[in-house]
Design brief:
11 strands, 10 helices, about 290 residues, globular, Rossmann fold, alpha/beta
């Protein structure tokens, strides 16, 4: 069994970006600039965006957080988005989801300039991805594809099962893996809450990717020997003995499934670090497009 180390792979990607940033800074260009917008004070979201900010700065970006109170109106948020769209010193920005229920998330996403949509959620970027045109890819699917490529995991002609059909992970990933491309050409089954006899599908799959948000859902008796497992789930389980009072686990019963897998990602340390790395890569791409750099 080979452990797919997302933490080290993400570090490699960030180092590659850092080298390129340093090169163009030496040519007199300003640093890339990434902005995060957070509505409310959810501790998990705040920790996440702070991590993005810190890692961006580590590789030579400018990065900042606009934190707004929970009561912020939809129009106020849209006004901030308009300012970010027109600010030529902002290369990319993210609106941290989920938003409070009084704000229409889809309306907010639609207001983002697609050229600064480094989360890859705008319908224009999703549409370009669908037809195979250059686009900002959603960061988590982008990170999973990158892990597959860098670990030389064959996908051509393989049966892939994706469990979870969210617009953030499952659906974009199903498109990317089925496209005629490196890291694609797979036969993809997209399973969800209405899928019948999931075990029938999972036992046939050469590669299983989980993104459903149910701790330890995929058990050893649901997979075949030699399966490749990519776990995009992040779930908190109570652990009073720990300092934080909880521990993070994925959607996969790692202890049992790892005994049958040929490759497997851990949680934490698998897909999670790749999501931030690919967000930074999207921002770097936006920066190069802005300055027309090769």
């Amino acid at each position: 069994m080979i452990l797919i180390d997302g933490k080290n792979t993400a570090a490699d990607i960030k180092k590659e970006i850092q080298t390129e940033v340093a090169h163009w800074r030496q040519q007199g260009y300003r640093p890339p600039n990434l902005v995060a917008v957070l509505v409310g004070n959810d501790p998990a979201s705040l920790t996440y965006v702070r991590s993005k900010e810190r890692q961006a700065k580590q590789i030579g970006f400018n990065s900042s957080l606009i934190q707004l109170p929970f009561e912020t109106t939809e129009q106020t948020l849209l006004n901030i988005i308009s300012k970010l769209n027109h600010d030529t010193k902002v290369d990319g920005y993210i609106i941290q989801l989920p938003l409070p229920s009084h704000i229409d998330s889809q309306k907010v996403i639609m207001a983002i300039d697609p050229h600064k949509d480094v989360d890859g959620f705008h319908p224009l970027n999703l549409g370009k991805m669908l037809v195979g045109l250059p686009a900002f890819l959603p960061a988590t699917p982008y990170g999973i594809i990158e892990l597959i490529k860098r670990y030389d995991i064959p996908t051509d002609g393989k049966d892939v099962l994706i469990i979870g059909r969210s617009l953030i992970v499952g659906r974009p990933l199903s498109i990317l893996l089925s496209q005629k491309r490196t890291g694609g050409n797979a036969t993809v089954t997209l399973a969800h809450s209405h899928t019948k006899n999931l075990k029938h599908h999972s036992l046939k799959a050469d590669i299983i990717i989980t993104a459903l948000g149910q701790p330890n859902f995929l058990k050893a008796d649901m997979v075949k020997d030699g399966v490749v497992i990519i776990d995009a789930g992040i779930n908190e389980l109570a652990a009073p003995e720990t300092k934080r009072g909880y521990r993070l686990v994925g959607d996969v019963d790692f202890k049992g499934v790892s005994l049958k897998a040929s490759y497997i990602t851990p949680v934490p340390g698998g897909v999670g670090p790749m999501t931030i790395a690919m967000l930074l890569k999207n921002t770097w791409k936006a920066y190069k497009l802005h300055f027309k750099l090769s």
